[in-house]
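PROTOCOL LOG
Step 1. Enter all chains and additional molecules of the complex.
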Amino acid sequence: MSGDPQRGRELYLTGCQSCHGVDARGIPGTAPSLHGVGAASADFYLSTGRMPLDDPKSEPDRTEPAYDRKSLDDLIAYVGSLGGPSIPQVDAARASLSEGQRLFTENCAACHQVVSRGGVIAGAFVPTLLEATPRQVFEAARIGPYVMPRFGQAQLSDHELTSIARYVQYAKHPQNPGGWALFNVGPVPEGLVAWLIGLLALLLVIRMLGRNEAP
Amino acid sequence: MRRRRALPAGPPLRERDRRAENLTLVLLLCTTLAGAGFIALYFAKPDTQFLGAALGLALVFLAAACLVAGKRVVPQIEVEKERPELEHLQEQDEVLAVIAQGGEGVSRKRFLLAGGGAVGVLGAALLTPVLSCGPEANRILSRSPWRRGRLLVTERDEPIAAAGIVVGELVTAFPEGADKEDIASPVIVVRVRPDELDLPAERRGWAPDGLVAYSKICTHAGCAVSEYRYPLYDPTAPGPAVVCPCHYSTFSVTDGGRRIFGPAGRALPQLPIEVDGDGNLVAAGDFSGRPGPSWWGVRQ
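Step 2. Run joint prediction.
Step 3. Record the structure below.
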């Protein structure tokens, strides 16, 4: 995967410079500088379709990437040439799934929900991770896109982060020993079902209590 | 629909059901025991799970006793008899005998004793928790393990290096050697850019190099404030804040834990911190206010 920074620069000038500026140093109040963000950021934002963004004030959301693979590589090569971390090598198969689950529960589940179906936090939507690749999970944790907090080396080592990425892959199709996963969206539908079953049971009890036994 | 029928002559309306009576008595006794268990647990081992189980059991036993008594002990047949005016003393006696007959099948004294005992103990059990509002409560709610010089540690009791926390990161910390379950123990530490900070004047020294610490317990209902939003690019995203996932109370981390959204009534208490000689985080004093949900003595 080695893009052509020259062609990337041309693509940049047509697709990105209206917000990030001609020399990619950002436009105050509209978009940040891309110097020093590195190929990792460019890979994350472009390969998840979060950039380019129609309205710089809106929350970037996952869509189909706007560029084909070759153009993506060229753009990433151009942004990477401005300095910053390169794209991480993430081999999820070598990480620990159980450790990943523990770390995901501790660090990610508060917002992303324990089987990564997403949710809301005051001021922003939390995306589902159903389509996230291990590399995108890894990059997002180090970057902290939009309002997501960052996770530095001291808090999550590369190996730990890879374990989290592996758990996210598992959580796309988790085992459901209970049988009925209810779309894995958590306590709300489970509560509704509990209410439904509970109410039916109560009706049954009421019916039994009220039965007339007089001959 | 109930059918009415004439009063049968002679034998009692219903055979006494010994087994049902005994079962009711046993159930009432169980109610009493479960209620007493609640009171004992309250003083010996006040764990809400066990307390709830004891109270729940007491109510289940009481309900079962009422069910059995209602269905199988208390006579259920309505009777009606045409009769002339009561002129003679003898007839009056007969009627009184019929009325007395209606109560047969229940040995009243035992039932009154067992029922009264059960209800009395259960009532006492329900009143016991009032003691929790006593003077002891203030002491429990006011204590804090944080002192100047107390080391901040992770969940695995490791010290926290200040340099290891990057801007935009959230770390949960506890006081070294203290009970992590204590409501005043857990804190969150975040690093923001020092120029973002807008702390009150008297808290200037509380945030070395953009590191700020707040109580992790929401001042609304006591949930763990575990969500953190830190904008990658401020002008196009909401500002840095921690969010409680229970009811979305949102507290700004840059200006002293001020509540900016949600049902919480007051700011998150801030913990003054400093960096010790080894580069680890230590407390520089106690919280700026009482941590945990507000109660009668705490509004600010």
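Step 4. Note key features.
The longest strand of chain A covers residues 119-121.
Chain A has a mean pLDDT of 91.
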